[in-house]
Write a structure and sequence with these properties.
This protein is α/β, with parallel strands linked by helices. The protein is built from ten helices and twelve strands. The strands form two sheets. Strands 2, 3, 4, 7, 8, 9, 10, 11 and 12 form a nine-stranded mixed beta sheet that branches. The protein has a three-stranded mixed beta sheet with strand order 1-5-6.
């Protein structure tokens, strides 16, 4: 029997995003107020959101998370890459709660226990990973109360993505759940080169073609630091019945800073039925 205890404290609050609750809520509210895309019709099943500091990618992330307004969601499964440690399979927290300046989020222990029977999971008592934490204040702001299923990916190969997607789809069936893929796109190219590389990812997302995206990433025709999470969420949402995909917003850091010599790409997207 798995044993979850303790709280995973925030490690990037006050640096990557505001550390004070009031300032954090205000910043997210301002991002939401600038979103000019209508809600997708039908049932929202999955999202893609970037994971840079809020001053760089927060506005793009808001295009994803505003899709959750007014929807009933009890469970959010976030699939995210590992930037700091090597993981052969997948890792999850051993904590019972994740904390941000907006409060504590309970871990969905039952679903993680089910996943542990199907997948090679490593349980982490503490971690320094930002690509999950950066998503959480947005989720808290728009949903209020929900339970979290965090899955960190080390191996982004298509077989691993398929394995995780099938396990997630089976475990989430019957829950009011949404999947989130945490990913930035190309890193540190010129503005023009980034647009070209990132458009490949956007095309496969629009076409709802996870296998095509996997091939493009493996061949170097495109880049995404959360490529495995994107592919996994695309596969899992299909298994859960989603049949439509929409890119909601694309931008890169050059659009914010004005420095076009070396940029990072960001995308928000939704999968629905």
């Amino acid at each position: 029997m798995l044993h979850f205890e303790g709280v995973r404290k925030p490690v990037i609050a006050g640096t990557w995003y505001p550390g004070q609750p009031g300032a954090l809520r205000q910043m997210i509210a301002e991002f939401f107020s600038k979103v000019d895309v209508a809600p997708v019709p039908g049932q929202l099943v999955g999202l893609i959101s970037p994971h840079a500091g809020y001053i760089y990618s927060g506005q793009v992330a808001a295009y994803a998370y505003k899709q959750l307004e007014g929807r009933e969601v009890d469970v959010v499964a976030v699939v995210y890459p590992s930037h700091r440690i090597y993981i052969e399979g997948y890792a999850v927290t051993a904590a019972a709660y994740y904390e941000t300046p907006l409060g504590q989020i309970p871990i969905e222990q039952g679903i993680l226990s089910v996943l542990d029977e199907k997948l090679p999971l490593v349980f982490l008592r503490q971690d320094q990973e930002h690509s999950l934490e950066i998503q959480l204040p947005f989720l808290q702001y728009v949903l209020g109360n929900f339970k979290l299923v965090p899955i960190m990916m080390g191996d982004h190969s298509l077989p691993r993505c398929r394995e995780l997607a099938s396990a997630l789809a089976e475990a989430l069936e019957g829950h009011k759940a949404v999947l989130v893929a945490s990913s930035d796109l190309s890193h540190f190219y010129s503005y023009r080169t980034a647009l070209s590389l990132d458009e490949v990812v956007l095309k496969y997302v629009r076409d709802y073609d996870p296998e095509g995206l996997a091939q493009a990433l493996a061949s170097g025709k495109a880049e995404a630091c959360g490529g495995g999470p994107i592919i996994t969420v695309m596969l899992a949402t299909k298994e859960l019945g989603a049949n439509q995909a929409r890119v909601l917003k694309y931008a890169n850091s050059g659009d914010v800073t004005g420095d076009l010599s070396s940029v990072v790409g960001y995308m928000a997207a939704a999968f629905y039925k």
